[in-house]
Amino acid sequence: MKVTLCDVAPRDGLQDEPDVLAPALRSELCERLAAAGVPRVEAGSFVSDSVVPQMAGAEEVFGALDLNGPTVFAGLVVNERGYERALACGVGEIHYAFPVTDEFCARNQNSTLDEAAGAAVALARRAGGDGVRFTVTLGVSFGCPFEGRVDPARVIELAGRMVEAGADEVALADTVGVAVPTQVRELVGEVVRLGATSGVHLHNTRNTGYANAVAAIEAGASVVDASIGGIGGCPFAPRATGNIATEDLVYLLHGMGVETGVALDALLACAEWMAEQLGRELPGQVYKAGAFAPVTG
Q1: Residue 89 near residue 64, CB atoms below 8 Å
Q2: What residues pair up with 148 in beta bridges, in sequence order?
């Protein structure tokens, strides 16, 4: 069994940090992750500098990266203007994310759910014509901090619309870390049955993120997002802390015999470097405890 890992630290990890890291440091983080064998890195987002100042200078970040190497450097967009910026940078994989509830859409993207979904459909179709790989992430798929329980039927219906529009991949996001494995297994299974490449974006806010990752993979998810050191969250959601840590996930998956193509030792060194840049201990555990050869081989 093989799983594709996408490290989202340069985007989702750093967008929630109080300090703004220079574009050169953010591109260095991307390069370190690529050197560790991470196959996909979400290198930044093309959003307003005034709204998310931590993502300012996305063009500089991507301009410093090898966009034709083995690691795919993806860019996140939330509207057509962001898509145009990403396209101008030569980004070959574009991620679009929107929450599946009206209240979160209003707070996060200043739109209604119908408007955000419509924009996703339009961009997916355009990306198909432009020859750009396009992934749609459905935020708060397992629970919303403002509306509470999310009806799984709504998530499945939206995922189906994305597949029909030509999205290459549909990811389900547990944006505030409320999901449990049974939920994840059932909902991911439904999306897989739509014929889509299915991914998950999980947070460990309530200490269920790694169990949810295993459940998602067992249900057929082939892509899992994670963040080096477990950094990140969502600046638009209360208490949305705790991305699952890439190195912790790799330790778990390698111990289970799941192939990732990632070098754990290099990831641990990257997490240590990230902790130095941020000047604090990170939430991840394995970079502090170290690997254990009898488990990971």
Answers
A1: no
A2: 144
Residue holding tokens 């340069």?
10
Residue type at 24 in one-letter notation = A
Backbone angles phi, psi at 119, to 5 degrees: -65, -40
Residue 238 has pLDDT above 70, yes or no: no
Beta bridge partners of 61: none
- Residue given tokens 């994670």 in the structure block: 226
**What's the rounded Cα separation, in Å, for the pair 251 and 259?**
11
Catalytic site positions: 234
The Cα–Cα gap between 278 and 26 comes to 12
How far is it, in rounded angstroms, from Cα 23 to Cα 279? 18
End-to-end CA distance of the chain: 16
Quote the pTM value.
0.96
CA distances from 296 to 4, 38, 248, 283 (A): 18, 17, 11, 21
Digit-coded pLDDT (tens) for 26-68: 999 999 999 999 999 999 999 999 889 999 999 999 999 999 9
**Cα-Cα-Cα-Cα dihedral sign, residues 139, 47, 62, 64:** negative
Residue whose C-alpha is closest to residue 82's, from 94, 92, 68, 72: 94
